[in-house]
Amino acid sequence: PTFAFAKLQRDVCLVQLVGQTVDTSGTPWLDIHVFRHEFVSIFRYSHSTRVHPHELRVFEPLDDHAVRYEPDNGTVFLAKDLMAHLKCILDA
Hints:
The protein is mainly beta. It has 1 helix and 7 strands; from the N terminus they run E-E-E-E-E-E-E-H. The protein has one helix spanning 80-91; strands at 2-8, 11-22, 28-39, 42-51, 56-61, 67-70, 75-78. Strands 5-1-2-3-4-7-6 form a 7-stranded antiparallel β-sheet. The chain is globular and about 45 Å long. The termini are far apart.
C-alpha cells in the first residue's frame, strides 16, 4: 500500500492511495483512504473517498520501510523522521 502526505481540500493528511478508476465520461478518479492524526506518530483510519486528481496534492510518497500499517485496526505508525518532515510541511 502506498502512503503519502497530501493536501485534501484544505487539510494536510496521511492518505493511502488505493487505486484509480475512470468513469464512463473518461474522467479519472483516485480511490484513497484518509487517516487522521491521533497521537505523536500514530494515525487512524478516518474514511475512504474518491477524488479527482486535481483535488489531491501529494506532497511526498512515504517510504514503506518507515510506515507500519495494521489494517485489522486501521492504525498507521510512522517513523519519527517522517513526523519531523510533516511538521516542516505544515509550517511552510
